[in-house]
## 1
Amino acid sequence: MTVHSFQEHFDSKIDREVSIEPRDWMPDDYRKTLIRQISQHAHSEIIGMLPEGNWITRAPSLRRKAVLLAKVQDEAGHGLYLYSAAETLGITRDQMYDQLHSGKAKYSSIFNYPTLSWADMGAIGWLVDGAAIMNQVPLCRTSYGPYARAMVRVCKEESFHQRQGFEIMLSLSRGTEAQRKMAQEAFDRWWWPSLMMFGPPDAESPNTEQSVRWRIKRFTNDELRQKFVDVTTEQAKVLGLEMPDKDIKWNEERGHYDFGKIDWNEFWNVVKGNGPCNKQRIDARRNAWENGQWVRDAALAHAAKRKARTGETKAA
Ligand SMILES: [Fe+2]
Ligand SMILES: [Fe+2]
């Protein structure tokens, strides 16, 4: 086949919603876009373990500790499925780690904010995992097969994460005055950064159009953000918490909530590395990588010894 007909074959698969698999021909830019998106997503999962890991030893009860521990371990699993999916596109895990540790690769900026109180575990589960679900459910139908399949399991686990967060918020908001206040403060701190998780406005998101055409993305950033605002505003009523945005108002005509202006300067500032915890997060990952060197060395040495030994038995 000529490149031209390869392209036609690819396009027709996309049009017919037939998934693209690792051995299929694909345009270079499609491959590059996916490597960027999937590896960023994988990095976000493992960096995302850090703010919550901070509270495992201080969880208020054994039950809360067990749940949080399970949740943080799930995020490690998500990272691993996604690194594996990215590897099918021809990048190695070492290359991806290197991009993360050198600061070349991005990850979700939300994880550059600190977790100051126990209520942050509630707010993160409710809002951050909630926003992740909005972003990720459409990815279960994304055009690249390995990515779509990884997302099916990820989304099941994310919905548990969202519920555990909401349950923490519910307990706190029905608790003492001090607990209710702690929940409200966490809501106030995480609300705007959660809205930023959907990425820049459509008008300033140069990759969106192509990604929608390739059916990598199914909805634009603004569409997903609006959906999140609509759902979360209703959930806040159940919690009896006040919306951190005073401009939230139901718009009968649009059938959606209108909301206030997002501070995009803050967003870009955090993306550029100047958020409250950027340095701390990357340092933690780098240290984990360096401190784990002996484990990788030992595993390789063990594998080599075993190979030598089975080689000997076979020879005998
Ligand atoms: Fe996750
Ligand atoms: Fe999660």
## 2
Amino acid sequence: MKVFKKASVVLILFLLSFVISAEESPKTEDSGESCCGGADRKENIQTQEEEDDDVVVEEEPDVPVAPPRTPYKASEEDTVEKKQRENRKIISTFKELNDPDGKRFNSMQLIPQGTFTMGTDEMITRDGEGPARQVTLDEFYMDTYEVSNLEFAHFVKETGYVTEAEKFTTSFVLENLISKEELAKITQAVASSPWWLPVVGADWLHPAGPDTTIKGLLNHPVLHASWNDAVKFCEWAGKRLPTEAEWEKAARGGLQNRLFPWGNKEYPKGQHMVNIWQGKFPETNTAEDGFAATCPVDAFPPNKYGLYNTVGNVWEWVSDWYTVQHDPNPAKNPKGPPTGQVKVKKGGSYMCHKDFCYRYRSAARSENSADSSSSNLGFRCAANKLPEYLKKATTQEHSEL
Ligand SMILES: [Ca+2]
Ligand SMILES: [Ca+2]
């Protein structure tokens, strides 16, 4: 009965959203490609509905509510040790790890101190993109690229770190990427977003399931890293996750009140500037931008701060807890709410399309629980000071620009 009741509510909201979107700017389109939290996520959505009537009216019909994680099948210690052995074996086959120049793929760019307009009043208000507000930040450094599989492999090689997806034994993968053999084994699905499937054995080394590999994808962004995993990686690298304000300022590249890191035109001079979805999601992916799934972290032109793929390719974790309520007053170095249930992610992914997930914009945002992971979610790190080991590389890169 519960399911039918929920289905009716969803249907009503779906019809309502058509009525509303027909009257509003076409830019406030529905979305729902974000994925996949634990049980916390559902509770969080309910809390928001109780707190803010506007959120109920605008709630998208296809909010993905993922089932709880699969419990551990073995003791954690056994699982971790087994995974460490398996991972060491796989990583030892990556020749790129022995390349001295490839040891740490990422460089960092200095983001100057100053004030910028964070958020927007004109787009997806239910996500808490507004109000547009003045935010002042001290200078900081931001990773040039999304964290790559190669970097993550170095981290795992040095530390033996086992990700949450590996411990939980499952992660969410876009259905189109899963092999027929693996599809046949899956019995669970997320009713509200059936294109997301929990795949046993999907993790950063097996991005689309246990029969897939990151060989040949070492310069692509690492996938299936939870927020907790991302924090550990950044600590290892002598960095930290950016705040949402830092991420957004960095993505805007010094431009004020623009939709995208490069300006307001989605296709300037007809050029693809970002890895998103072309075609009708989720049935057709024409990959006109050159990529059906992730692209290399250095594909597409950088923004004016020298950052690549901030929007599109993969969503990126930031440190803030998620809220849709923001103080409209000017703020200095804001860090988001002190507590919360889910974390903010920024930038949209290769699964975003204007008609479905218009979130490959600088102000756009979404959320997931800190232990969740999926095949379109990654991160990049920030730092107050440039780590010593990067000083030479970054100086060289600047002189080449
Ligand atoms: Ca694409
Ligand atoms: Ca990105």
